[in-house]
Write a sequence for this structure.
């Protein structure tokens, strides 16, 4: 049979150097992916913008009204006019308060919704990435990006955007009012602007780099803590609590060191901005005072000008502060959208084929062929498999044996396409697995791992994970088939008993039987089984063994075999050594040949049960 040309395996996603990406990626474009998420909220954002503009207009009108008030009081002596102006100011501020409240609510609510959608999209994207991605990334780092980095974007959406718009309006409007009030004094006021802009440019680049460094170190600290928590029994079993505390403390020292450097840059930045902004006001006050003394300017006009100058200076200071926060957000956005830009190394086919009807597969298994498969996990790694070929006929059980590192687990991972082969092909019912939709392929396969993984919910939820729409009767039937009802009925709340994180409240045999019940409920055509009974007591071992026998009946099964009893029951044995198939046949025939399998047998590779 002539095999098709090997399909190229998509290149592994390279690790992204933060420093390089910071230089290459223009910061304004980083927030581009947020724009499509804002479109459904266009009406709320437009209304918030109207409230913001009207509120800013009231704020900009205040200094001019103060001018009229002072001139009326101290020049014309019109007390009634003074009363009317004061009442008018109160009304204006009441209107401004309502506008501010509406604007803050609209932007905050919109920001919460947009960021919640972003966080959901990021999580949904991550869980669809190939397992190879997670071998290169620590869980704690991903959680940090999903929580801390997205929370920083939440601050941008809920507060910083509106504050930036508000202060920009005050800056532009204040400068316009300064020009109308006294152009000559305005030139003095604006003399500091080039200095402020230059400082923002110089300090901004350093702030962005420092902020990204802080976020990276926080992610490393989070990853260290998550790793220690997930392996708490190992930590405590080896009495390494102090070591893990010291490791976490070292990460925190790095966080604090980076944060102090950022604080130093931020402090110097704000110090420069504050000095030059309010230094300009001092110059205006001095020059304006001389104009008042000379009769060229009224006291009310000077006070009005000063209020506008203070408004401009405050806007510059606020924008400088926002610029520093923006640099933090740039780092967070870059990290979040880098993850959204990752692509699975195992891609869905453009035009997927369909397997035969599901009931037929479940009744008699499925035909599985592994044809001349070669695979390595990364270009720089040695081959894990080389030219491997064997078949699992419908309803047949094939035991895969071999020394550690022979490639047994790799074969089991290639069948459901957790990775793609580099050469050769894997066929299910005559269809290349790369031509099947992942949901279709993996829906036909049930996996019972050596270390069963349970979620922290109830027994019912863990069994029903295979089919969330399963009925109570179906869940109970799956539990009985897996010999799990014996212990479930003794639990405090039966099926509604919570099992704890990773199923910590259950014994190893109980966890294993729930994992088998989950596969029973799924009712797949193909079962991949990594035996895990060596650490069980004799009674649990017997029950798990009986559950496995029932599970495998009538299904095509691939077993990574560790127990001699399993190998004896298998229809065929495939022996792997250094990533190659070296022998294949029945247990008794392979023993008689006296090859690799016989040596494994005599070397007590198998547990003699």
């Amino acid at each position: 049979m002539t095999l098709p040309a090997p399909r190229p395996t998509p290149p592994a996603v390279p690790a992204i150097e933060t420093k390089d990406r910071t230089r290459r990626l223009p910061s304004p474009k980083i927030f581009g992916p947020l724009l499509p998420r804002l479109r459904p909220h266009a009406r709320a954002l437009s209304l918030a913008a109207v409230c913001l503009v009207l509120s800013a207009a009231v704020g900009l009108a205040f200094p001019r009204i103060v001018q009229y008030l002072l001139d009326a009081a101290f020049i014309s002596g019109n007390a009634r006019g003074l009363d009317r102006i004061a009442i008018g100011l109160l009304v204006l501020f009441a209107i401004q308060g309502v506008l501010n409240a509406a604007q803050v609510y609209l932007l905050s609510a919109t920001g919460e919704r947009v960021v919640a959608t972003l966080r959901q999209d990021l999580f949904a994207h991550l869980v669809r990435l190939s397992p190879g991605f997670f071998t290169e990334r620590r869980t704690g780092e991903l959680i940090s990006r999903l929580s801390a980095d997205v929370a920083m974007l939440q601050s941008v959406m809920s507060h910083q955007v509106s504050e930036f718009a508000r202060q920009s309006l005050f800056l532009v409007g204040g400068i316009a009012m300064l020009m109308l009030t006294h152009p000559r004094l305005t030139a003095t006021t604006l003399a500091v602007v080039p200095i402020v802009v230059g400082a923002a440019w110089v300090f901004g680049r350093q702030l962005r780099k420092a902020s990204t460094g802080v976020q990276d170190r926080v992610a490393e600290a989070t990853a260290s803590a998550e790793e220690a928590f997930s392996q708490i029994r190992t930590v405590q079993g080896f009495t390494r609590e102090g070591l893990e505390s010291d490791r976490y403390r070292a990460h925190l020292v790095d966080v604090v060191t980076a944060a102090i450097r950022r604080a130093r840059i931020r402090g110097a930045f704000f110090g420069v901005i504050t000095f030059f902004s309010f230094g300009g006001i001092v110059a205006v006050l001095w020059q304006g005072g001389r104009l008042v003394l000379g009769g060229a300017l009224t006291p009310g006009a000077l006070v009005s000008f000063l209020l506008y100058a203070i408004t401009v200076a405050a806007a510059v200071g606020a924008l400088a502060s926002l610029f520093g926060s923006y640099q933090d957000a740039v780092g967070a956005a870059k990290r979040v959208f880098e993850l959204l830009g990752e692509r699975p190394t195992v891609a869905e086919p453009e035009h997927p084929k369909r397997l035969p009807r599901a009931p037929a597969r479940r009744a008699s298994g499925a035909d599985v062929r592994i044809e001349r498969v070669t695979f390595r996990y990364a270009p720089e790694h040695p081959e894990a498999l080389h030219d491997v070929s064997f078949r699992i006929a419908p309803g047949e059980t094939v035991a895969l044996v071999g020394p550690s590192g022979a490639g047994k687990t790799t074969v089991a991972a290639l069948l459901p396409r957790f990775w793609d082969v580099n050469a050769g092909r894997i066929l299910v019912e005559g269809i290349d697995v790369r031509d099947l939709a992942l949901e279709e392929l993996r829906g036909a396969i049930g996996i019972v791992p050596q270390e069963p993984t349970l979620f922290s919910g109830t027994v019912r939820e863990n069994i029903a994970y295979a089919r969330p729409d399963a009925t109570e009767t179906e869940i109970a039937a799956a539990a009985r088939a897996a010999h799990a009802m014996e212990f479930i009925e003794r639990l405090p709340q039966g099926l509604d008993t919570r099992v704890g994180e990773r199923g910590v409240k259950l014994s190893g045999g109980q966890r294993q039987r729930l994992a088998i019940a989950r596969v029973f409920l799924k009712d797949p055509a193909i079962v991949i089984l990594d035996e895990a009974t060596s650490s069980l007591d004799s009674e649990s071992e017997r029950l798990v063994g009986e559950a496995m026998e029932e599970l495998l009946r009538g299904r095509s099964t691939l077993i990574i075999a560790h127990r001699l009893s399993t190998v004896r029951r298998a229809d065929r044995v495939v022996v792997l050594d250094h990533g190659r198939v070296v022998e294949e046949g029945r247990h008794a025939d392979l023993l008689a040949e006296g090859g690799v399998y016989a040596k494994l047998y005599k070397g007590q590779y198998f547990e003699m049960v």
About this structure: The chain has three domains: 18-341, 365-444+526-609, 454-523. Residues 241-293 form the longest helix (53 residues).
